[in-house]
Design a protein that fits this description.
Layout (H helix, E strand, L loop, with lengths): L29 E5 L11 H9 L4 E8 L5 E2 L4 H5 L6 H8 L8 E6 L5 H10 L6 E5 L2 H10 L5 E5 L12 H24 L5 E5 L5 H9 L3 E5 L4 H9 L4 E4 L17
Parallel strand pairs: 1-2, 1-9, 2-4, 4-5, 5-6, 6-7, 7-8, 8-9
Antiparallel strand pairs: 2-3
Helix pairs in contact: 6-7
């Protein structure tokens, strides 16, 4: 996967950085804000994206969902969308095309298949394709994106789940399924990368191993890990060679936040 361009990963136009954040602790690790900065301000909102910018992320992940009325909005699921008047896709992309976000990469996470053309068109129309990655849990969606715009990198999100079942009554079977995925994922991910279906793997932290990191890298891909809200775990993941960590609280990259329990 080609490196997405960013003029300077530490200082960007429009960012108001406290003095103690000007020297990042982990310059080699791509720092990704989940839904912006979901533990600082409600995710997928203008305020959350501004918080992510404030706290020095290299990339902002945001969700795109088609509502039942056909509108494309920035929301994780229908329940999330019902909590507020969500930004539309056009409003969100207009924001990211503004000068303040000019150096920030984007992870556009498609929650469902079926609206890939609208997303690709929106990115291209605003000149955002060169600094965007589009991710999805659905391989058919990623294959469709490859047909539409092969130059935009694609990330396969695993495992496919709408919630964290390890924190529910289904925890025991969920952990069993995750163990199977953990064993099979390195070879499968590497084969998809070599075949050109994907350029990145977006993996839940529970299924990430050093073997996965090594095989993804050897195949020429990148490994993004979600959603990690613990500073020590972020450091361990960097040590095994992952390319990026996605967190709800970007302050953790600098040791300026209290760690949280893992979240979706």
């Amino acid at each position: 996967m080609p490196t997405l361009p960013r003029p300077d990963p530490r200082t960007r136009p429009g960012r108001r950085q406290p003095h103690d954040l000007l020297v990042p602790r982990m310059p080699a690790l791509k720092r990704v804000g989940h839904k912006g900065a979901d533990h600082v301000a409600p995710g997928n909102t203008r305020e959350s994206f501004e918080a992510a910018l404030e706290h020095g992320v290299d990339m902002i992940e945001f969700d795109v969902l088609r509502l039942r009325d056909g509108r494309l909005v920035l929301a994780h699921d229908y329940k999330d969308a019902a909590k507020r008047a969500p930004l539309t896709l056009d409003e969100g992309l207009d924001l990211f095309a503004s000068e303040a976000y000019a150096g920030v990469e984007l992870d556009v996470d498609l929650k469902l298949p079926g609206y890939e053309p609208a997303v690709v068109e929106g990115l291209n129309a605003r000149g955002l394709s060169g600094r965007s990655l589009i991710s999805s849990q659905y391989l058919e969606s990623l294959d469709r994106l490859r047909e539409l715009e092969p130059e935009i990198p694609r990330g396969w999100s695993v495992p496919r789940a709408q919630r964290d079942y390890t924190r529910s009554m289904w925890a025991v079977p969920a952990y069993g399924i995750l163990q199977v995925i953990k064993r099979r994922l390195p070879a499968r991910a590497a084969s998809f990368i070599r075949a050109g279906r994907i350029q990145a793997v977006m993996a839940h932290h529970y299924v990430v191993t050093q073997r996965l990191a090594q095989q993804v890298r050897a195949a020429g891909g990148e490994l993004y890990v979600w959603t990690v809200d613990d500073a020590e775990k972020i450091a361990r993941l960097e040590a095994i060679g992952v390319h990026a960590v996605i967190t709800n609280d970007p302050r953790l990259f600098y040791g300026n936040a209290i760690s949280h329990s893992p979240a979706e």
